Amino acid sequence: MELVALLSTGKGSWGQVAGLMQKGEWEKVIIVGAEFAKDFYVKDVPFDFVEFDTNKPLIALKKDFEKKLKGKFDGLEVAVSIASGNGKEHMALQSALLSLPVGIRFTALTKDGVVML
User: Fold this and answer.
1) What confidence tens digit (pLDDT) does each residue in 93-104 have?
2) Of the candidates 9, 22, 39, 74, which lies 20 to 30 Å from 16 by C-alpha distance?
3) How do the domains of the chain map onto residue ranges?
4) What is the tally of helices (H) and strands (E) in the chain?
């Protein structure tokens, strides 16, 4: 399964994303983040970075995500982490993924490991 992780604001959320990347068995990892997230790095875990503008309104952000994510997925379903970011970003990303269309399964790193919710 492919992982799509939103990398934005939120105390400790970057560690959650890094842990998911390292502990999960992903066919591909796509990090969706603002310009300040370009320097995000996880040793020995390759990923594609999709940049977005946090100042865009909801509908424009959703359309931007759709455009930038179209054609990036091989499967019919992706694992999604929204531990980072805010409600507008969460809504835009989820809506864009469902419009592509791909199914989404929320995922998180817990004390028991990577879980699908």
Assistant:
1) 999 999 999 999
2) 74
3) 2-116
4) 3, 6
How many Å apart are CA 46 and CA 11, to the nearest integer? 23
| Closest C-alpha among 42, 43, 53 to residue 88 | 53
Query: For residue range 20-74, what is the model confidence (pLDDT) as tens digits?
Result: 999 999 999 999 999 988 889 899 999 999 999 999 999 999 999 999 999 999 9
Q: Is the pLDDT of residue 11 over 80?
A: no
What are the DSSP calls for 45-65, one per residue? ---EEEE--TTS-HHHHHHHH
Please give the model's pTM, rounded to 2 decimal places: 0.93
Neighbours of 90 (CB within 10 A): 15
Q: Residue 69: in which H helix or E strand, if any?
A: helix 58-69
Half-sphere exposure of residue 38: CA atoms within 13 angstroms, side-chain side = 5
Cα atoms found within 13 Å of the Cα of residue 42, Cβ hemisphere only: 21
